[in-house]
Write the structure tokens for this entry.
Amino acid sequence: MGVKKQELNIALVGAGLVGSLLSIFLARRGIKVKMFERRPDMRKEIISAGRSINLAISTRGIKALSLLGLDKSVLAKAVPMRGRMMHSLTGELTFQSYGMNDDECINSISRGTLNKLLMTEAEKSGLVEIEFNKEVTDIEFESDTLTILDKRSGQTEKVRFDMVIGTDGSASAIRHAMLRLPGYQASETKLEYGYKELVILPDAAGGHKLEPNALHIWPRGNFMLIALPNFEGSFTCTLFLPFAGPLSFEHLQSDQEISAFFQSYFADAVPYIDNLVETFKSNPTGHMVTVKSYPWNIEGKTLLLGDAAHGIVPFFGQGMNCGFEDCSVLSRFIDGMEDLSESSWAKMFAAYGKERKVNADAIADMAVENFVEMRDKVADPKFLLEKEVEKILQKEFPGRYVSRYALVTFNNVPYKLALDAGIVENEILSKLCKGINKADEVDLSLAERLIDESLVPLLEPYTPELSLVSH
Ligand SMILES: Cc1cc2nc3c(=O)[nH]c(=O)nc-3n(C[C@H](O)[C@H](O)[C@H](O)COP(=O)(O)OP(=O)(O)OC[C@H]3O[C@@H](n4cnc5c(N)ncnc54)[C@H](O)[C@@H]3O)c2cc1C
């Protein structure tokens, strides 16, 4: 009791996307934060922002930014993507819009641009101090002490804090240290696929060489290439491919193998990709991992947030969005606290984890499933028919039929609801598509009955939110 905000001695480990955003939420409540980031300051030194060069931000991420008044400045630097542009083997293009109107889009933003903007905004508050080149190598929970390595001097120091928040990403040192304690669990499931980034440069006039307002996909069964537009006219392409097996990274070693592979499967992209073979050989092959851990807190002293708590594979474009939503949910819980005593933090962290865990698990599972949809099903006629029928249902029964994709991407409803609704929707679509060849042959009275019986009861508690979908 009686703890004042300015007296709280909080350390945040990791000034990535989630850590930087969280520090702004805390600073706006008058709470002082010290952040430790192992990389140099990317605003002063040219370094890779790590992992993907660009990413898609959608409603959940935008909502968190809008609570801080930052949504407009971020979206001003993003490229809206209104749907998927599928590239067939023979180069034919098919466009599938993501939403029901132009507002329902996802937005491609540079990871570096976003991270820099958030760090600058955090420091502007005067309450956030970021120490760069400082890697937290250990935490002793008995004495609340962090071991911090200065990567420039090679010196380590031990510093005591009242509270430590781990936003240090999917390989979190804080999570690994928590696992030494009884009752703490985590699983790390590596996908047997890797990813590699390539680039399509802008044209001579600085414009995009492909349709800019789309996420381009070359679905090829058990692998795929995608391309997301960048603000300044380029595209970042990402190849997702098994590590091992007949068509895999393992088998793409020589220049000849690399160019023959791209020529066979992505012929229409080849003329655009800059320095294809050399870039392929020099860029690293990334891993993707689903991390599930629990509990996320140690009393009121330690908390995990973002990828540190729940790593998600990138196929629903939700890892960062989910981490940003962590921040807005935590902020709501902070507002509900009676005081700033350690026991209040402990109660609040536990309640936050309980509400959030089920949702983080849901999006982690949906993200793995969506990989199959993106690389394989988007080229399958049965799936395409179901998608067409789904569009009709959304139009005919607004608020009563909302697709799983829209629940995840264009809404702020719990991810678990989207997971549950998606199972029911699959059943409805498969019943409705049995025996029809074209979407307009769908039996709308049967559809209405199925929707009212099985989907509406799930969505009903959220109807007021659903009917106000916007961002
Ligand atoms: C290929 C790919 C594409 C993706 N696309 C999307 C997308 O389209 N949309 C989306 O929402 N999400 C996407 N994601 C997921 C997204 O990148 C992550 O969910 C997001 O980066 C998580 O943010 P974070 O701050 O929790 O972790 P990170 O971004 O990993 O940041 C962690 C920070 O902590 C620092 N750090 C780590 N360890 C220490 C330590 N011991 N001491 C000090 N500092 C430390 C790191 O240097 C880093 O700055 C994608 C991921 C990948 C791999």
